[in-house]
Amino acid sequence: MARPKVAFFDLSSCEGCQLQVTNIGAVLFELLGVIELVEFREVLSERSAARYHLAFVEGSVSNSEAERRLKEIRARSDALIAYGSCATNGGVNGMKNCNSLVAAQAEVYAEQGAWFPTTSTRALHQLVTVDYMIPGCPIHPDEFIKVVKAALAGLPSPVPDYAVCVECKLNENVCLYDKGITCLGPITRAGCHAWCINNGNTCYGCRGLVSNPNRSGAAAVLHHYGLDAEQIVKRMTMYNAAMEPDDA
Ligand code: SF4
Ligand code: SF4
C-alpha cells in the first residue's frame, strides 16, 4: 500500500517550527517509515508530488503571493495542518496590524519599503479551511506527534479550549502572580503543558486565546500587578494582534 504523501511549507515565519520537527529525534525516523515525505524545503531539495495527503504549513500570510501559494497548497491537499503561532493565530507577525502598512514597510525596509508589497497579517484559517491546528511558538513535539497520528488516521484532534493555568496547576507550579510576576496563562489556550512556566519563564500567550476570553478582567489583573495601559495592550497583542475579537 502506498504511503501517504506529506509535505511541509513555510510562509512568513522564522522557520523555528520546521526546525522543531527536524529535532524531534527517533520518532521522526519512525514517522518517515510510514509516510512519504515529498516536500520539506529545510531538509529536502526534491519536490515530487502533485497532490498531498497532508500539507503542513508554517507561517502567516503577509502578502498577496503568500495568499496565492496558500490557496494553491490547499487545493492540492486532502488535509491542511497549520502549525506554529504564525499559522494558527498570526503570531508576532500580527503586530504589523497595529500600524499602517506604510509604517511597517518603512520600519523594516526604510526608503526601499515600496519595493516590498505587503498586506495585513492573517492566520491561515482566516483565508482557507484548516483541518488541524498545532499552536505554539515553537510547536511542542508531543502535540505535533499527537496531531500527525490523528491526521494519518483521519480522526479529529482539537486544540484544548481551557487555560494554560489548568496545566500549570496540575504541574504544581507556584503561580507567578504569587511572586509578583504577570502572566497570560489565565486567557491562553492550554496544550503546551505550561511549558514556559515549568522552565522559569512567563506565559506570553503564544498559543492564542481561549474562546470568549475575559479580556477586560485580564487587563484589570495586569493593571493591578503594575502594567500601564500601553504595556497591557502590547502584552495582549504580542501574539494575538491578527485575531478578530471572536476568532480566538
Ligand atoms: S503562573 Fe501563569 S499559567 Fe501558572 S497559574 Fe499562574 S497565571 Fe496561570
Ligand atoms: S506557556 Fe504560554 S507562551 Fe509558553 S508555550 Fe505555553 S502558551 Fe506559549
Structural summary, described in words:
This protein has 248 residues and is of the alpha/beta class. 34% of the residues lie in helices and 11% in strands. The protein is built from ten helices and five strands; from the N terminus they run βααββαβααβααααα. It has helices at 16-22, 26-34, 64-75, 85-89, 101-109, 141-153, 164-170, 195-198, 215-224, 229-237, and strands at residues 5-10, 36-40, 52-58, 77-83, 132-134. It has a five-stranded parallel β-sheet, with helices on both faces. Strand 3, helix 3 and strand 4 form a beta-alpha-beta unit. The longest helix has 13 residues, at 141-153. One iron/sulfur cluster binds next to helix 7.
Give the SSE map.
Blueprint: E1 5-10, H1 16-22, H2 26-34, E2 36-40, E3 52-58, H3 64-75, E4 77-83, H4 85-89, H5 101-109, E5 132-134, H6 141-153, H7 164-170, H8 195-198, H9 215-224, H10 229-237
Parallel strand pairs: 1-2, 1-3, 3-4, 4-5
Bound molecules: iron/sulfur cluster (2 copies).
Bound molecules: iron/sulfur cluster
Q: What's the tally of helices?
A: 10
Mean pLDDT: 95
User: Any idea what the radius of gyration is?
Assistant: 19 Å
Summarize the structure.
By secondary structure, the protein is of the alpha/beta class. Helix content is 34%, strand content 11%.
Which key terms come to mind for this protein?
248 residues; alpha/beta; 5-stranded parallel sheet
